[in-house]
Write a structure and sequence with these properties.
This protein has one helix and nine strands. The protein has about 160 residues and is mainly β. Strand 3 and strand 4 form a beta hairpin.
């Protein structure tokens, strides 16, 4: 059931994005109601290509921690609000989380925190400044025991990348 809900949410998000991009109407579009995935792509590792996570130019909050789940089970995408070029939204979609808050880091800096009471997360965090400059960027999703990011044990960790072109 969780996989169905995850797939349904992912398909809905994709269809909504495509529907907004395919509009040829001359009517103005409300900025708060639409997102556009302009020149952004999510990178995924494959056995044949080098993993972008290993790029030495990337900055991480945690350098030597292994993923606790397969990174492909977490979907990361970047969307720009129409009419606002000062920030973009970092979307996170997964049903692999523990029952705890999720700390979101981009390029080694905390950019979001989402309190979660169940195991699925479908949320966005606004990012701006150097996090939306052209190039490859790091993303880390971390959950700590007792939501204690200073002293708590890491109970969930996944790292991946996104690229702005």
């Amino acid at each position: 059931m969780k996989k169905f809900a995850f797939c349904f949410a992912l398909m809905t998000l994709t269809l909504l994005s495509l529907a907004g991009c395919g509009s040829s109407s001359d009517e103005p579009v409300e900025a708060a109601e639409s997102t556009s995935e302009e020149t952004v792509e999510t990178t995924e590792s494959t056995e044949e290509a080098s993993d972008p996570v290993d790029d030495p130019s990337l900055v991480w909050k945690y350098d030597d921690i292994e993923n606790t789940v397969d990174p492909s089970s977490v979907s990361i995408s970047i969307g720009r609000k129409l009419g606002n070029t000062n920030f973009q939204e970092l979307w996170v979609l997964s049903n692999e989380f523990e029952n705890a808050g999720v700390f979101i880091y981009a390029d080694g800096e905390q950019v979001g925190y989402k309190e979660e009471s169940d195991l699925q997360l479908d949320t966005e965090s606004p990012i701006s400044g150097s996090h939306i400059e052209e190039g490859l960027h790091s993303v880390e999703l971390v959950q700590y025991a007792d939501n204690d990011d200073l002293n708590g044990e890491i109970i969930f960790y996944v790292r991946t990348t996104y690229e702005i072109k």
